[in-house]
Structures are given as structure tokens and as C-alpha cells.
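--- STAGE predict ---
source: upstream dedup step, 1 unique chain passed
mode: sequence only
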Amino acid sequence: MGFTIEGHILTAYTEEPGVTAVTVPDGVRTIGWGAFREQTALTAVTLPPCVGTIGRSAFKGCTSLTAVRIPGTVVEVGPSAFDGCTRLAALRLGDGVEIIGKCAFDGCTSLTTVTIPESVWQIGVGAFAHCTRLRSVTLPERVWEMGQFVFSGCTRLTTLRLPAWRVGPYPTPALYASLSIEDQIDMYRLFSHRLQENAIFPETRLRILCGLLASGYREASFLAAVRRSRPHLLAYAIRSDDVPALRAILRDAPLSDRDLETLIVRAAEQDAKACYIVLVGEKKKRGLLVDGERRL
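--- STAGE serialize ---
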């Protein structure tokens, strides 16, 4: 195989014609900076049970890589280690991994499941950003340090379970009553600071936005995101019968009379009783004629 090894460090791999799967030789303890970078023919890589570190950009741009076996001896997955591995569909990190570096799996657009071992305590900025097929993630109890935008651009992520010491199971509509404003801001930053530019609004993002609104968060760029995504938020608030969020939306992004009428009908049709009462109350407050009210 075309390996270049210096001491215990694999510094480079040279692509060989027809070779798509490789096993790194025993004795290698570090996969060096960019060792396999942009080796687009590789589909599978097996690391020996002595590797402790996967270096920066080690497998970056390996667009055909579908499987990588990471042994329990690996302690650190470096920054951008698997950045842009667009065919990597499933990931199981070894039980010894403690650090997942910045943008380590950024742009792994085929990744649907991630198993993060209990040994992990640090996850870097944007570690799983733009993993557009990722749906569910459970973070271990030991995670103590987490950068911003870890899941930014994960437009299909609907379930994220955080360590119990932080906020417990997340997201659930009722959880916001027990969340501190600091925790909710952390969640907002964790996913994305540019929510208004996303065309898709999965349940997770809507819950974050509604929860922050209901808690009184009023940072300027956040409110701009709220106003741009108001139709999605209103639909979510009514469907979830989330009265605090609905009142916050009414306060921060006032509705036209016509919009108010439409939402009253929608709430009645969806049997969102609490939201229906709030909307009818808003209509009365404006002095509008209320016809055909539903009896609750």
C-alpha cells in the first residue's frame, strides 16, 4: 500500500489504482494532518487498535468513504477530520474518544445516525454542521464543553438529547417551563445563528424559537429571525397549543386583522383550545366583531 510513515505517524497515503479499501498498518499511533485528504477512490478504512489521534483534515474530502472503523484507542478526532465525507452514512466512535474537534464531521450529508460514546467530554464548534440527513443524536452525560453551531444546518434533526445536568431530554414542548433563559440561548446558538436563512423549519428549531420568545429573549438578530419565520412559528404555536409563544409572537410581530381571522379558524379546526381563546381575546381587544364563536 502507498503509506508514508514517520516514526509512529502516518503522514500520507498515496492512492493506488483499483484499491478502494485499506487497513492502516500496526504500529501507527497518529493519522497525520491530511494523510488521506481528498482520496476520492477510498470507500473503507480500518484503523489498527493502537491509533490514538486522528489528525486535522485526515480524511477531509474523501467523498466515496462509506465506512471507517474507529477503535477504542482513539482519544481525539481532530478538526475537519472527516469534513466533506459526503457518503459516510453511519458513524460509531470508539469507546475511548474524548474530543471531537471543530468541524470534524461538517458536511457529511449522508450521515443519518451518530453514536457518541460516554467518554466524550468536548465537542468543537460546528462538529456536525450541515449533516442534512441527521435525525437523532444523544449526547453523553460527560459532555462538559461544547462549541457553538454544533448542529447548524442539520435541517432534519428533530431529536436531540442533552446531558441531564444541562437540560434533560430535549426537545419537548413542555420542557421550556423548566429551562433557564441561558440554556435556551445556548440551544439557539448551538443550532444556528442564521435561522432566518433556512428554508426548512424542523420541529427542533421551531421549539427553540418559540421557547426563547416565551422566555422573553429579545436580542435584535433573534427577533429578526422571528419576524422572517413568523408563519412557521404561528403554525407551530397553534399546533402545539403553545400559549406563551403565541402571545410573544402577537406582541413582537403584530398580525393584521385578516391574519388574525385566519388563525382563529385554524385553531378551531386543529382543536387548539388555549390558542383559540387567546386569538379570540385579541380580536375582542381590537374591537372587532366576533361572530360564530365556538363554545369551549
